[in-house]
Amino acid sequence: MAIPSFVDRVTVHVTGGNGGNGCASVHREKFKPLGGPDGGNGGDGGSVILRVDPDLTTLVDYHRSGHRSATNGAQGKGDHQAGSKGADVILPVPDGTVISTPEGEILADLVGPGAEFVAAQGGKGGLGNAALASSARKAPGFALLGEDGEQRTIVLELKVVADIGLVGFPSAGKSSLVASISRARPKIADYPFTTLIPNLGVVVAGDTTFTVADVPGLIEGASEGRGLGHDFLRHVERCAALVHVIDCATYEPGRDPVSDLDTIEAELKAHGGLEDRPRLVALNKVDVPDAREIAEMVTAELEQRGLRVFSISTASHEGLEALKYAMAELVTARRAEQEKPDTTRIVIRPQATGGPEFKVRQTPEGSWLVQGEKPERWVRQTDFANAEATGYLADRLNRLGVEKALLERGAVEGDEVIIGDGPNAVVFDFAPEVQAGAEILARRGEDHRLEEPRPAVQRRKAKDSEYHAVRSGELSPSGDLSEYGQGWVDDEVDLSPAEAKAAAKAAEKLARKEAREQTAGQGPDQNG
């Protein structure tokens, strides 16, 4: 299938580069084994930027390749070496490109050379442990991960920036008019729908220079999808004035200049947004005798509607000078009404600020969902394989007030807490009022919350207490506890090698003590 040379609407998938991870490193040199943290920050990912290039007139490059991605940022290194930033990708677009979402929300309207829009922001690089060091945490054993780049699907729609728009039925002579008053050379033939793309021409009338664009032939029902005109009506939205080019020499039955004008006006009204544009009427092909007579018959009626009418011939160039200067007057008046911007207009749509930094709600399943830019970003930056990094995240969430908000809404210990919504969501078990260990002075890599006794250890302590209570006579034995450790089940004996060795020594010591006591108790009887 052949690819068209003119494309005015495309869908592009853009992806920003990922940020590089921060580095967790400790400076080391001879006679100075622990010289402090020196891990560098990761580099930011590159962004995808759309920028107006006045030399472009079509979006065909993105029709061929609809996926564009920026490069990733490099990971940080030791010795305070920050990772390099990813390179931005600049996508040139024609002047007059409108950027929107697939749902129709307009993101930017790029008009003027150099106007640009960041379509996909690159991810931020993660902080290294040198940047995370503080007076309370002098040697962090972790670094933050880089953020993923933004992914977005956008729709690029070209609206030609022209001063005068020519509208009319197929074969009315619009392309011939552009060729006659400018140096543009569009395709011209004696069959309908010769023009398949909008043609632009630069016209000079006295001291005024302006551009003229012709829209491929409109027919009745074009606004509803008939013919080609509905695809190109957007190109006259920016025009200062419209010129109706009417064929006075058509041989089609049922057509005349007045009905042609009414039909085209009905399509423009159905398209919408063009009611305030001034109109001119060009009765074309008056070089044909019958056409001249028809033009003279309808001129008075059209002027009664308040329209300026010009009888022209693109073949003999009759009436073209008067039409050119009339166009120039409308363009000059329109430019005078509009304030000329001091700089290139760049559309910026900042996000709303203020309000809570996160929100908490309960899901139908009973879990608690925490949503907000900061908590979700912090989760993405955390390396959960590192206990100290997990503790640092808990400290940040606690300072932000997440734990307090959960308690106020009725969350209890053990409830499932989800931070984020989507594939990157992280699930925690709620443990309120637990002091995080990342801000407590401790050896690097330790988290005091992980030092809580295991259930098996607690059961062993209960057995020990029961054993000593039986020996002292305070409690009747509930099982065979004649020897230390007797009566424990296998799953409760969860000892490390050091604990097992210490338990064995304690058992031997108790056994010797019991033997001495028994010997001392039997001694007098034997002597007697």
TrEMBL record:
Residues annotated for Mg(2+) binding in this entry: 175, 195
Cofactor(s) needed: Mg(2+)
Binding site for GTP: 168-175, 193-197, 214-217, 284-287, 313-315
Biased composition (Basic and acidic residues): 445-454, 506-517
Region Disordered, annotated ranges: 65-87, 445-528
E.C. number: 3.6.5.-
GO biological processes: ribosome biogenesis
Highest taxon in the source lineage: Bacteria
PANTHER family: DEVELOPMENTALLY REGULATED GTP-BINDING PROTEIN-RELATED (PTHR11702), MITOCHONDRIAL RIBOSOME-ASSOCIATED GTPASE 2 (PTHR11702:SF31)
Family to which the UniProt record says this protein belongs: Belongs to the TRAFAC class OBG-HflX-like GTPase superfamily. OBG GTPase family.
NCBIfam families registered for this protein in UniProt: Obg_CgtA, Obg_CgtA_exten, PRK12296.1, PRK12297.1, PRK12299.1
Function field: An essential GTPase which binds GTP, GDP and possibly (p)ppGpp with moderate affinity, with high nucleotide exchange rates and a fairly low GTP hydrolysis rate. Plays a role in control of the cell cycle, stress response, ribosome biogenesis and in those bacteria that undergo differentiation, in morphogenesis control.
Protein name, as recorded: GTPase Obg
Organism: Kribbella flavida (strain DSM 17836 / JCM 10339 / NBRC 14399)
